[in-house]
Amino acid sequence: MRIAVVRERAERERRIALSPEAVENLTGDGHELVVEAGAGEAANMADAAYVEAGATIAPDRTAAIGDGGVVVGVNGPDTPELRAGLGADHVVLGLFDPLWRPQPMAELAATGATALSLDLVPRSTRAQAVDVLSSTATVVGFQAVLVAGVRMPRLMPLLMTAAGTVPPARVVVLGAGVAGLQAIATARRLGAVVQGFDIREEALEQIRSLGAKSIDLPEADPDDPTDPAQRTQAALTPHLAEADVVITAAQVPGRRSPTLVTDVMVEAMRPGALLVDLAAERGGNCTLSRADEEVLHGGVTILAPTDLASGSPVSSSRMFANNVVNLLRLLTTDGEVVLDLEDDIVASMLVTSGGEVVHPGVREMLEPAPSGGTES
Asked: In this model, does residue 81 exceed pLDDT 80?
């Protein structure tokens, strides 16, 4: 089977979908690997390393994707230029974010290509080996703490020095998914005093298992008419007021990021504090966040980087590549891609096939809104 690895065109993207080690594994399986020239440069993976691993170097994208086979990228082909040359004989793998941005999937379907979105891997034990989102979130959580450590105006660990005692920084992490838990673990390693919050009880247990303190909200009064979200925000405000760093990491696939931190909560934070919002691509967890911009509000700095997944590009590319290798082995029978729709992993990831968008959730997002209503 022919597998093409393309160079990423997205701004600030430094990863590559398959590392030389992954290419060596796939050529060992009997596949033909073609890598677009320069695809691994941003991740310090030279063309020569791919040649040594058994791949052929193609001079450009068109030559790399050829007339058919599997095309692997970190990000999906979301522009006409990147979709050029794709056809019914191609199977495309990448991060498409199709539930949030469905229109590019309709345009990709029009090429006839089959597309499987790496964003849609089901959350199951069996799917962990192909779970690119978890690998990506691990990098994001780690990088978030490094960014905070560089930008915050104080040191993170407790230090006993001849110049006196330096107290540890206080870090609060809101959202204990993979990124949030990694942020908690990293901040703990750097010596900070860490608190974590999540609405899920099992996530609070995971926070405590990392040596951090969980923020446990008081039981709600059933007669209290206050909106639950507002009640949660009010309960979190005192914890944020004492924090040197707040990291927000709550996301819902295909939906706008939930609001965890309001203007009023930021105004309660101490001057010099730092907030890092990891959900900015879908609106952010903080009402003041602006994607890839720095906002200063009442002495609090708010950062909303969207490129943290490309941090540590060697490690992040290798993790991504290992997931892709496992997926390709799952999809392949006798050297060819066979899409078994009885397999829950395949069925969950398949977005386009036969010139149509076939994923129910994406199809629903593409349907026009009901007419006849009025806007208030």
From this structure: yes
At residue 369 the predicted structure's pLDDT band, cuts being 50, 70 and 90, is low
- First-to-last C-alpha distance (Å) of the chain: 55
The 3-state DSSP class for residue 300 equals strand
- Same domain assignment for residues 217 and 343: no
Q: Region 154-170: what's the mean pLDDT?
A: 94
* Same domain for 246 and 147: yes
Same domain? 23 vs 37:
yes
What's the whole-number mean pLDDT along residues 348-356? Answer: 97
Indicate whether 284 belongs to any domain.
yes
pLDDT, tens digit, 9 for 90 and up, residues 33-61: 999 999 999 999 999 999 999 999 999 99
Shared domain for 141 and 268, answered yes or no, is yes
Taking alpha carbons only, the member of 237, 235, 304, 236 closest to residue 269 is: 237
User: What is the rounded CA–CA span in Å between residue 61 and residue 45?
Assistant: 18
Give the separation between CA 237 and CA 233, rounded to whole angstroms. 6
**Helix runs in the chain, H state only:** 20-28, 47-52, 61-65, 80-83, 103-109, 132-151, 178-189, 201-209, 228-241, 263-267, 313-331, 344-349, 360-366
Q: Is there a domain that residue 375 lies in? A: no
Check whether 376 has a pLDDT greater than 50. Answer: no
Owning domain of residue 86: 2-131+313-365
pLDDT at 103 over 90: yes
DSSP H/E element including 295: strand 294-297
Would the pTM count as exceeding 0.85? yes
